[in-house]
């Protein structure tokens, strides 16, 4: 396991690194997840193996530190991840971001373009999410339907009971403050939105989505801006877990 301090207080982001040739491929997980748990099988797939790969846990999640005095906005997540990538010597990386991790990857590419040579977004969040969501659900809007005080005082148990054992296996590793604040800021999105940032980025961009869901919202405008849209069969939102072969083919073909 590798790590780097990313805040003035010395809080550390940690990652599992798979050795290989560069440029690095950096995997970034979604809300309540962890990159080693969600991406290891896919990163070792024959179509993707052999590249230097960093399976990074965002601050507040998985193996990384969980500071209580961090804001956990998408911009702060992106800046902390940028500090970790610089420490790792992973400039010009290919970022593969799932869900919230895709939103963070977009913001990072906009704020720190020298660190990102290519974006592969996996069913990523692009827009603000209407509130309220179903209380107790695992979605960002469900978590954000509680105030921070309610969530920390015990409403997190409703989330635990609602998400099921698979998601909770990694969600329970997150700091509760980090989990709630990240959900709130994901729901609020950025200004401009992640969609607008993505459309304006110069890097090659690919957006993977489950074929069963149909094209993402605003597909024509995304495609017109140069975003390559790829439908992956036989999967739901967790593309890399549901169909590792299809995911690996799509990532390997990204250009």
- CA-based shape: globular
The secondary-structure element order is EEEHEHEHEHHHHEHEHH
CATH architecture: 3-Layer(aba) Sandwich
Strand adjacency order, main sheet: 1-2-4-3-5-6-7-8
Number of domains: 1
In which range does the helix fraction lie?
40-55%
Give me the secondary-structure category: alpha/beta
Strand content: 15-25%
CATH topology: Rossmann fold
What is the C-alpha radius of gyration, as a whole number of Å?
17 Å
pLDDT averaged residue by residue: 95
Runs with pLDDT <50, length 5+? none
Short structural description:
This protein has helices spanning 35-43, 74-88, 100-111, 140-144, 148-171, 176-188, 194-200, 219-224, 239-242, 244-253; strands spanning 2-5, 12-18, 21-28, 51-57, 93-98, 116-122, 205-210, 227-232. It is α/β, with parallel strands linked by helices and 255 residues long. α2 (74-88) crosses α3 (100-111) and α5 crosses α6.
Your description of this structure?
There is one protein chain. By secondary structure, the protein is of the alpha/beta class. The chain has a single domain (2-130, 190-253), classed as Rossmann fold. It is built from ten helices and eight strands. The protein has an eight-stranded mixed beta sheet. Helix 2 crosses helix 3. The chain is globular. It starts with a strand and ends with a helix.
């Amino acid at each position: 396991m590798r790590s780097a301090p990313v805040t003035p207080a010395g809080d550390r982001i940690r990652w599992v690194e798979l050795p290989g040739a560069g440029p690095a491929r950096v995997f970034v997980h979604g809300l309540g997840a962890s990159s080693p748990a969600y991406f290891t099988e896919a990163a070792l797939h024959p179509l993707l193996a052999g590249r230097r790969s960093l399976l990074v846990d965002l601050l507040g999640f998985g193996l990384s530190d969980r500071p209580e005095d961090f804001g956990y906005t998408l911009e702060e997540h992106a800046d902390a991840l940028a500090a970790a990538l610089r420490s790792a010597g992973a400039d010009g990386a290919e970022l593969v971001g799932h869900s919230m991790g895709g939103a963070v990857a977009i913001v990072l590419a906009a704020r720190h373009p020298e660190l990102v040579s290519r974006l592969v977004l996996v069913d990523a969040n692009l827009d603000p999410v209407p509130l309220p969501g179903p209380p107790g659900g695992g979605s960002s809007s469900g978590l954000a339907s509680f105030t921070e005080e309610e969530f920390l005082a015990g409403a997190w148990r409703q989330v635990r009971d609602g998400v099921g054992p698979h998601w909770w296996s990694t969600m329970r590793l997150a700091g509760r403050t980090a989990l709630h604040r990240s959900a709130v800021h994901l729901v609020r999105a950025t200004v401009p939105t992640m969609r607008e940032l993505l459309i304006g980025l110069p890097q090659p961009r690919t957006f993977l989505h489950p074929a069963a869901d149909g094209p993402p919202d605003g597909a024509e405008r995304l495609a017109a801006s140069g975003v390559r849209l790829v439908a992956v069969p036989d999967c739901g939102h967790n593309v890399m877990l549901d169909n590792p072969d299809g995911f690996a083919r799509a990532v390997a073909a990204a250009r």
